[in-house]
Amino acid sequence: MTTGNKKAAETADFSTEEKIIALYELQKIESQIDEINRLKGELPFEVQDLEDDVAGLDTRIKNLAAEIEELNRSTKQKKEEIELAKTKITKYEEQQNNVRNNREYESLSKEIEYQKLEIELCEKRIKEFTAEIKNKKKAIEESKTTLAERKIDLAAKKEELESIDAETAKEVETLNKKAETVSAKIDDRLLSAFKKIRAGMHNGLAVVKVKRDACGGCFNRIPPQRQLDIRMSKKIIVCEYCGRILVSDLIDEEEK
Fold it and tell me: In terms of pTM, does the model score above 0.70?
């Protein structure tokens, strides 16, 4: 027997009324867990944001360091090109002393001029690389300062969150066990619908009582005949306005 079939067989022993009471009990348990999670407030999101910031800054610092390394290689290459151009100039100047005509002399002069322009261009590029390296080093220092601040904030937020988790861990564990026990009375299709409704409600309420002839979730009026059907607990009834599962205002007494 598959897990789904086994669960269906187990829940078949429970009446619709028992399943409705189980849903209501499960809602109360989940609401208690929600309340505990509310104690954490925005802390989990703040911790996640800070962890993302720290990871992002680490990556930025590594990228900047790699870019500086590449600029240093480019600077070294340009310096080598300058030395090569100087060597060529010296060679061409020596050749000029042994030329046989003006055409050869002019040709060598052009080569010398070209190498001088190459040196100027390389020197210009080296200045640009140097300025870029300076800016990137400054950016690294700023990022390191920000990173240190973020790490301090992260440690403080984590400590606060861990403190709340430690204080509430036992209670949450107990509630989760209760939720498992109660869920065993509810078939998978109904349990899935309960979770889907809960996920769509800002306050997490999927099951609500009828209060003063109205839905306890959206406060729209419930017709008398529908209220009677809800009290009889013969079938699952949902609010036609908000989609929440409706239970009798007397359900607490029925539970007892």
Answer: no
